[in-house]
Amino acid sequence: MSDNIHTNVLIIGSGPAGYTAGVYASRAMLEPILVQGIQPGGQLTITTEVENWPGDTEVQGPDLMIRMESHAREVGTNVIADIILSVDLSKRPFTAIGDSGTTYTADAIILATGAQARWLGLDSEEKFKGFGVSACATCDGFFYRGKDVVVIGGGNTAVEEALFLTKFASKVTVIHRRDELRAEKILQHRLFNNDKIEMLWDHQLEEVYGSDEPLGVEGVRAKNVKTGEITEIPCSGCFIAIGHAPSSELVKDALETHMGGYVVTAPDSTATSIPGVFAAGDLTDHIYRQAVTSAGMGCMAALEAEKFLSELETENAPAKAAE
After folding, report:
1. Which active-site residues does the annotation give?
2. Which residues of 150-164 are buried (b: 16+ CB within 10 A; e: fewer)?
């Protein structure tokens, strides 16, 4: 038999934005429910060293998320291991259906579903996913001990993946379609001073090739974007690190979005195009995409949800009194 649960505030997602929203909503006595989603803890659970979280010179990503979840639970957030499959934002209370069969209704919703790895869309990339092609060095780097690998990309994600892979791989080739990196300067400095890393500038991945039985990567072919010349690089693993796309599938047809799916919020606010629905973290942020900014937005969303519900209660008070 399916359960029906009502809450003042339903938080969908469990990264820094979601857990922080849970803390603030709980402190406001809103008794929030937080549904963790398909990746409890978000992207930080697949990150190793985090060096820019205030108060920690260095902390492991998974450890930080365990602490955040514990904090949210401790102050009263009802954290539920479920995955929201659909939401109805057309009327209030809003409705969300979980994979467990549970129906959640809420007077306000905070969306904190984050973002997921972006792929190139190559047929060969798809063929070897999980068999030498990966978007997560911290998940799969161990399998490439003593082997050669390539990393595709030029931003923070690519540089961080490449540096992490040097702990295992004998050589890491970073393939970037431009002649300079977009990553933070401190990360570039570490990259260029690592003897295990080699750059291939002005190239883009054309094809991943390998064996069929057993399925496995044996190398990649990269094309020079200026001359069209193909360079073949033997390797055992190919890591796609070209950033992330917002996980807005649940609401893309209900809320205003832009920039490829990021949920639009009002200036200096987490309010979306539907009153009572708030969005925080990487779901809305195509500029900063940092754990600390996501946490800040989670705080904002909870405070704004509290204000929204308070105003709603005030509006309904005369009607209740008349009854």
Report:
1. 136, 139-140
2. bbbbbbbbbbbbbbb
